[in-house]
Specification:
alpha/beta; Alkaline Phosphatase, subunit A; four-stranded antiparallel beta sheet; 15 helices
Length: about 525
């Protein structure tokens, strides 16, 4: 038990050597992850601007979900859950500061190693993994590459650390060939080319479109700030959203005094970054198609969580469990994935990746894994629809909610660094205190906190989650149903580890389904 406290945008398209199918016959696995990418800014969901043309096309050649969710809208909790298949309440990683407290039996890296895979991280980690856990390690952060080798690496790091601390509103001086997504794809293709005799797994982890929202040309000018879709919410709606949102707004105003004026440019930069990433994802996947490896590789493209992108007059993340933060893009393609043009009917989680990969390679899902294998639904096989009729998201490190009063200032807490404009930590004592849970089922969403305060939204009629219907007698039946569903999920997510000793027999479905008689 482990318990530790072609040519795109002027870039050459590398041609890899012809593939050598691994002797094991097991497929390769490529996880392509972005950091802080909203799910709805894409053509496949009706967004009017051409932000993700390649992934949109790939989605309709494979399988995509419009009800995929993170486990918690923060990087480390989400990434630790992806790698272990366990929710934050079980991993103990409820915040970005609890990574050393990770708790699990077996994880993705261990199972892949047991099954003869060569493994790699190229990009952002922000999990408990360390270089010795994988075959290859090249880490990047929001401030550049960890091991700076070339002059370009050093200049990128200098700019990101010394100039673009919060958000960069001008065209980025970092040229396209030195932008982190480009460098990450370069390294990924080089490493894949070196893999000859073993199946491989690579986590391609882009630090963008996370702040500082810097983007170079031509992407800076690709989306004009004055032609963006209008926001449906504003700061006027914060009274309806609650104290944590209002505290976050105050923090942002203290750090970003011109936020309202700058917001259109920030929003344009954000989708420019996503388009840059889309082009680099295209370069990566088209390279593997050219080398003949696409059909023998499982691809999943997703994000760890979302971004307000101006919703409620806010940027980044922090308060609450809104769809803008909780719902994530998720697209599957490649090996044995059966094409489905429309979005897959089902509510899924980032925690479902690990058990799905277990099914892909023929490994048993380890004890303590709480996610469910998506492999039957991805490959067009029979699966229990009820199993995927709802999903939950968690938030909070526990204790009582912390109000904003004079006893603790933003500066004292560390959420605001004086003298550094737009440099603030949205994941702080105020926004993360207490405990909240949400459940999504069909068009409905329920949020409850540890004070018994509830939120109920019909997302089809109210996608911005402004009209709270909790307590309205007209919706008592659906409210009761969602409350029962949330309790059921909470019981399901009670950690079974350690398993009972001696004579008890622990029953586990091969796909980790609970609402199924399949054996």
């Amino acid at each position: 038990m482990k318990n530790t406290a072609l040519s795109i945008a002027g870039l050459a398209l590398p041609v890899l050597c012809a593939p050598l199918i691994a002797q094991t016959g097991k497929p390769n696995i490529v996880v392509i992850m972005t950091d802080q990418q909203r799910a709805d800014l894409c053509g496949r969901e009706g967004f009017p601007l051409d932000v993700t043309p390649f992934v949109d096309r790939l989605a309709k050649e494979g399988v995509w979900f419009d009800k995929a969710y993170t486990v918690a809208p923060a990087s480390s909790p989400a990434r630790c859950s992806m790698l272990t298949g366990r929710f934050p309440s079980a991993t103990h990683v409820r915040t970005n500061h609890n990574v050393p407290d990770i708790y699990f039996d077996k994880d993705l890296a261990g199972v892949l190693k047991e099954n003869g895979y060569k493994t790699a991280l190229v990009g952002k980690n922000h999990s408990y993994l360390k270089p010795s856990d994988l075959s290859f390690w090249s880490e990047y952060g929001h401030w550049g590459k960890n091991k700076k080798i070339t002059p370009g690496d050093k200049e990128t790091a200098r700019f990101l650390n010394q100039e673009a601390k919060g958000q960069w509103l001008e065209p980025s001086p970092i040229p396209l060939e030195e932008q982190l997504p480009t460098k990450i794809v370069d390294e990924t293709l080089t490493w894949i080319e070196s893999q000859k005799d073993n199946p491989f797994f690579v986590w391609v982890s882009f630090p963008e479109p996370h702040n500082p929202y810097q983007v170079c040309e031509p992407y800076y000018s690709m989306f004009s700030p004055d032609k963006l879709p209008l926001l449906k919410t504003s700061r006027k709606d914060l009274e309806k959203k609650g104290e944590k949102y209002r505290i976050l707004a105050q923090l942002e105003d203290e750090s970003c005094p011109n936020l309202e004026k700058d917001l259109p440019r920030i929003r344009a930069n954000y989708i420019g970054m996503i388009r840059l990433i889309d082009d680099q994802v295209k370069r990566l996947i088209e390279s593997l198609k050219a080398s003949g490896q696409f059909e023998n590789t499982v691809f999943v493209i997703l994000s760890d969580h979302g971004d307000y992108w101006g919703e409620y007059g806010l940027i980044r993340k922090g308060a609450g469990l809104s769809e803008s933060l909780s719902r994530i893009p998720m697209v599957w393609a490649g090996y044995q994935i059966k094409r489905q043009i429309a979005p897959m009917v089902g509510h899924v989680s980032i925690a479902d990746l690990f058990p799905t990969f277990c099914s892909v390679i023929g490994a048993q899902i380890p004890a303590g894994v709480q996610g469910r294998s998506l492999w039957p639904m991805l490959t067009g096989k029979t699966y229990p629809k009820e199993e995927f009729s709802s999903i939950v998201v968690q938030q909070g490190f526990g204790g009582a909610n912390v109000p904003l009063d004079s006893s603790l200032t933003f500066e004292q807490e560390g959420a605001l660094t004086p003298g550094k404009i737009a440099h603030f930590d949205e994941l702080n004592t105020w926004t993360q205190s207490g405990t909240s849970r949400m459940i999504r089922k069909g068009d409905w969403k329920l949020v409850m906190d540890n004070y018994g305060k509830g939120e109920l939204y019909n997302l089809k009629k109210d996608p911005s989650e402004i009209h709270n219907l909790f307590g309205d007698k007209k919706y008592s039946i659906v409210q009761t149903e969602l409350l029962a569903g949330l309790v059921t999920w909470e019981l399901r997510l009670q950690d079974p580890l350690p398993l009972p000793r001696k004579r008890y027999h622990f029953k586990q479905n091969p796909y980790n389904y609970l609402l199924s008689d399949l054996e």
